[in-house]
Amino acid sequence: MSAIIIALVQVVLFVFLAPLLMGVIRQVRATIEGRAGAGIWQPWRDLRKLLAKNPVRGTDSSWMLRVGPVALVVSSLLLCVLLPLVGTIPFALIPSDLFVIVSIMLIGVVALALVGLDGGTAFGGMGSSRHMTVAALVEPTLLLSVYAFSIPAGTSTLSVIVETRLLSPELIISPVSVLALVALSIAIMAETARLPIDNPGTHLEVTMLHEAMTLEASGRDLAWLEVGSWLKLAALLGLVSNLIVPWGIVTDFSTLGLLIGVVSIAVKVLVLGVLLSVGEIFLAKVRLFQVPELLAGSFALAFLAVTASYLVA
Amino acid sequence: MTGIGAGLLLQLGLGALAVVTALLAAPSLRSRAGGILCTLIAVTGFITGLAAMLGATGGLLIPVALPMDPLLLAPDRLGGLFMLIVSGVGILVSIYSMSSTSGPDASRTAWVAMPVFLVGMQLVPAATDSVSFLLAWEIMTLGSTVLLLADHASRASVASAGIWYSAMSQLSFFFILAGFAVLAAASGGTSFSNLQAIEPGSAAANVAFVLLLLGFGGKAELVPLHVWVPRVLPEAPSHVSAAMSGAMVKIGVYGGLLVCVRLLPDGPAWWGIAIMLVGGASALYGILQASVSSDLKVLLAYSTTENMGLVFLGLGASMLLRGYDATAAADAALVAALLLAVSHAAFKSTLFLGAGAIIHATGERNLDRLGGLGARMPVTAVAFGIASLGAAAIPITSGFVAEWMLLQSLIHGGRQGGAVVSIAASVAMPIAVAVIALTAGLALLTFVKAYGIAFLARPRSVEAADAREVPSLMRISLALGALSVLALGLLPGPIAALVATTVSSDPTAAVQTVGLGGVSLPGIGAVLDPIMLVVLSALVAIPVIVAIIVSARRHPHRTVDLPWGGGGSRARPRMQYTATSYAEPLVRVFDDVLKPSRDVQVTHVAESRYLVEHVRVEQTVSDVIETRLYRPVLNLFQRYGKAARHVANGSIHRYLTYSFVALLIVLIVVSL
Amino acid sequence: MFETFFPQLIGLCTGALLLTSALMVWRHSLLASIRLLALQGVALAALVAVIGIAEGESELGLVSLLILSVKGIGLPWVLAYQSKASIKQIQESTRLNPTAALLAVTLLSILSYVVVSRVFGLGDSSTGHAAPIGLAMVLIGFLLLISRRRARSQLIGFLVLDNGIATTTFLTSGGVPILLEFAVSLDVLLVVLILHVFTGRMRTKFGGTAVDQLRELHD
Amino acid sequence: MSFLRLATLIRHGGRIAEPAPTAPPLFPGAEVFGGSVQVRYINAGGCNDCALEVSAAFGPVYDVERYGARLVPSPRHADVLLIVGSVTRNMAEPLRRTIEATPTPRFVIAVGDCAIHGGAFRDGYGIVGPVSDFVHVDIEVPGSPPEPTEIVQALRRMTGR
């Protein structure tokens, strides 16, 4: 029962938090650039407006253009349900297992790639191809880094991993954990199409990865694609923040604890968002064919983390 | 006579009937009659296999193998499982092939070979001694070779494929024969119960292990013995490719299991590591080649290599872990490998049948000339899509559960109760996880490409634009295949528990059923219930769908005739990304492994060399193993062959001289 | 309090050593490599300090300061002495595909773990567990020496190798006599100065220090 | 540029955006946007001076993004088409297609005299006509070229902020 409540709270909170996070990220960036910025509620306004438009679809686009965005949103919402964000009380039959989480995320990745191909344009296919190449190369890093986290906890269930770190905080600064965290962060940057892998603010088609796939979508189709990506970013940042700073997460259900959990995860995600935004100021997008090198580097770190945790501890 | 024996006898009888029917039936009726009889064979095999897997004993004694012991066909639980896999694929293929009415698929030769192939495959897992095993193996190989060659008259490439296939099959057969011979010599008998008695660490066991692994690895498409795969599977008729990839390859897996689990268990640690290495290399190499391939059937063929690599990776991991007494993880890895074999049978036969449907509708298997088939062939599109999800290991399909179990057993296998099992295992497990992860990522790209390019977007050729949905029997077969992929993915618990009984001494300790068909690995502490996952996603989807319905009522969509292509009027289908361009970034990333050859020809306008009239870019990715390993060897043979032609020039005198010299040499040797 | 965190601190320092070595293989820019080298020197000094505090030896504190000044500040400064503007533009083009080099790093680390555990046994102390990292650094230093083209990048590889030796000795014996360490550091400094002068000469003579182009010297 | 230099630059730069002038009245019908307007910029054949002013309007000094207007890479995402230049023969068809590809409700802003009535190029052999010949223009921003402030004010009538 408490698992259901926490899951519900997580979904509602992140549906609210994800656009806010994007607003904060954009606002911080605008402030640093010397602009006034559109305010942290702008993504909400964008969404409301997109839902109030009459979408345009090409005659050649199939049902994928309609279903794909929904699949992306559902996969991101499932991430919000299953990840240990507000609380670490998992469902008995579908725990927040690492491999299940990654596969659910991949549903969204696939949906987006197919939407990109569906329009039958050059740009959509290009974005889709690049997106899938990056996704394929990210997966080893993603799995290995969380594998490294899982070794001290003795299980691949993310909520147990977070709980273990809460109980023995010295794990957080162990070299294994630091290496794995760096690797995981790079993997997540690649997965959520942030700098230096992709430039989320670009308007130039040839440099696009993520954006190129959405060029054909409009109105509510576009809205779901945007929400899905935002939710994914927010949920993954939430996971990272709980791995770095597990304090505040609910382990035993109580109303007060839930309140603390909600506030703490919101603060953690937003702070991480600000850090991300500030960090991105100092980064330039790397060339597409240097991305594999970056990912190989992160893979090497994750791999070192795993072997080190096997052989050192 | 027991039920199992009756089932096997019935199969043999039906097989004979099917052969006779194929010989006698009128061409118009041949496919129907043959198809119905083949379906009956497969259904009988399915029931027999199921009974054997559930623990029924009994068999069929054929007292005609003088001078050796009489042949005994009596499948054990493991054999039953593989009979089940083979016959399941057999049912799909038989239903599918019924609708072919003309051409080589409906020829007399093809319909004679089909039941032979099916029965041969059924009998291999039923064999209890090496002689009947090899006999059944040869029947299977013979049937498949004839089926492959049925089409040789119309296409030259089929003949070349046939040569490769026969050569590689005979190589496999030779290795297996040699392996069994070594074992039989060491143990003094040909039946498996005799062979089992051999000392695990002995030299004979080691030699036999390597020989049998080579033999079965060749059949299971493992690197570097996979070279026949990209030639044969694409060239064979699609339902035959489905049967080969879905069923026959599993017989290779069965052989591997026979060796590693039944005949030579408790081998040294290097056996497990060797199998893991071969499996991991096959998985990576297979999927890399598949991901850059633009030919739909070549892509599927290489992906089979990948999947079999993963199966053997699981098998090797299980052997390694069993050596360190990590029984729970070892059992889980073995069950995962078997589950992957089962699910591969489901999704890969559906994929090959789907490719067959595409070829039936368009005559094309080059992805670069397909596109937009989703709207034109909806049933095929959905079935192919579900099977692709299975091949890409996406949740609620069978492939996902199998890979999930494999990864779980690997990440928990390196440690037992907080202590490292061994240095070897703790190094091997992370590498294995990394290999599986990269494989899974590339598989995702491969099948997004295959599905997205073939079924979505705009047709890239006239043939694709004119495609129509395939006949109803083909659709039924495709739908059955897709349903089996979903069923295996949604109810992994009971299936895994059943599979565990075939290989584990304590199946309930390895796998249990939880919730609504969910699977739990008690020794590892991992739980997964796909049905709950579906319920959960349905729950979160409801608000989204409601929002869409409300929004769609208020703000209806508008359709325009062109996709957005920068406003230009020439956003033609030719400007779309093709399968080749889709894989281009990957080809660059793995440049050092794939060694693509690029050829760019620029033709300039006659008036000025600064203006380009047209550019032709050609890029081919060939099989590196074939060009680097087989070609030199083959060239060497060819050179010796030429030399031999001088020696054997047909002159009777010369041959007599050879005989005479040989006789003299023998006499000299004897006298020494 | 310190006892519980001691293994973590040791781990953190050795982790930083390994991380900086791996990053040096990753990055192409010479300036970045020099900065990472400085960071590595600091991590090594911190490692010595932590061991010193744990064992209550004030001598090690002195060694730590020495290392900090020589390896953390001195050597990097010498290496980066040349005008900043020119050093920024030096991008190393390696002989090895960077992805392959990174995979090699992981394999070398595994190898050192396996070798140390098989040959010496990992022991129970946390310092003993971290010892393979020293060996891994030595191997990575070799890798850098082999794969880099420029003389100065090779120098960095040599210094990583030296740091690796130092790490191994500190972790296995709990410290070397101060004089020995002093002598070794001086040695290294000397080598660096000589090589630096040498490369300076070569630059004036040949206009570059890419080793491949130095065939002329040989011919 | 090194990390430190960039950080210093950011610190010294401070806020570049000029203070916001008073908001103009909302354009009738633009309530539906609710303060979020995605702009697709089209150069139908201008001489690039209006283009410079438009890019200045989206730059940090005038910063029209603070009012909720944002440039987008596809007309499918757009609410407002910002058209500069008189329509040339080669751009006529793409312009039509772009308008067709924009989901409703949408508005069209013509920037500069050329876009409004042809300007200096009116009778050029390559010119088909002003933008209003192709599509109903909702807001006209006169000037050759107009001040960025005027472009900003026109967009603010759409966002209502």
Secondary structure blueprint with pairings:
The complex is a heterotetramer of chains A (313), B (672), C (219) and D (161).
Chain A: H1 2-32, H2 42-51, E1 56-58, H3 64-82, H4 98-118, H5 122-153, H6 158-167, H7 175-191, H8 210-213, H9 219-244, H10 255-281, H11 291-311
Chain B: H1 3-24, H2 27-53, E1 60-62, E2 71-73, H3 77-97, H4 108-126, H5 130-149, H6 156-187, H7 192-195, H8 203-219, H9 229-235, H10 238-263, H11 269-291, H12 296-323, H13 327-362, H14 373-376, H15 378-391, H16 398-413, E3 415-416, E4 419-420, H17 423-455, H18 462-465, H19 472-490, H20 492-503, H21 507-510, E5 512-514, E6 518-521, E7 526-528, H22 530-554, E8 558-560, H23 579-582, H24 584-589, H25 591-594, E9 597-604, E10 612-620, H26 624-647, H27 652-671
Antiparallel strand pairs in B: 1-2, 3-4, 5-6, 6-7, 9-10
Chain D: H1 3-13, E1 37-43, H2 49-58, E2 69-71, E3 80-84, E4 87-88, H3 89-101, E5 107-111, H4 113-117, E6 127-129, E7 139-141, H5 148-159
Characteristics:
heterotetramer, A: about 325 residues, mainly alpha, 11 helices, globular, C: about 220 residues, disordered C terminus
Structural notes for this entry:
The complex is a heterotetramer of chains A (313), B (672), C (219) and D (161). Chain A is an all-alpha fold. Chain A has helices at 2-32, 42-51, 64-82, 98-118, 122-153, 158-167, 175-191, 210-213, 219-244, 255-281, 291-311, and one strand spanning 56-58. Helices cover 70% and strands 1% of the residues of chain A. Chain A starts with a helix and ends with a helix. Chain C is mainly α and 219 residues long. Chain C has one domain (2-218). Chain C contains nine helices and no strands. Chain C has helices spanning 2-26, 30-55, 58-79, 84-88, 98-119, 126-147, 151-173, 178-206, 215-218. In chain C, helix 5 (98-119) packs antiparallel against helix 6. Chain D is an alpha/beta fold. Chain D has one domain (18-159): 3-Layer(aba) Sandwich (Rossmann fold). Chain D has five helices and seven strands. Chain D has helices at 3-13, 49-58, 89-101, 113-117, 148-159, and strands at 37-43, 69-71, 80-84, 87-88, 107-111, 127-129, 139-141. A five-stranded parallel β-sheet of chain D has the order 2-1-3-5-7. A two-stranded antiparallel ribbon of chain D has the order 4-6. The termini of chain D are far apart. Chains in contact: A-B, A-C, A-D, B-C, B-D. Chains A and B meet through strand 1, helix 3, helix 4, helix 5 and helix 9 of A and helix 16, helix 17, strand 7, helix 22 and strand 8 of B.
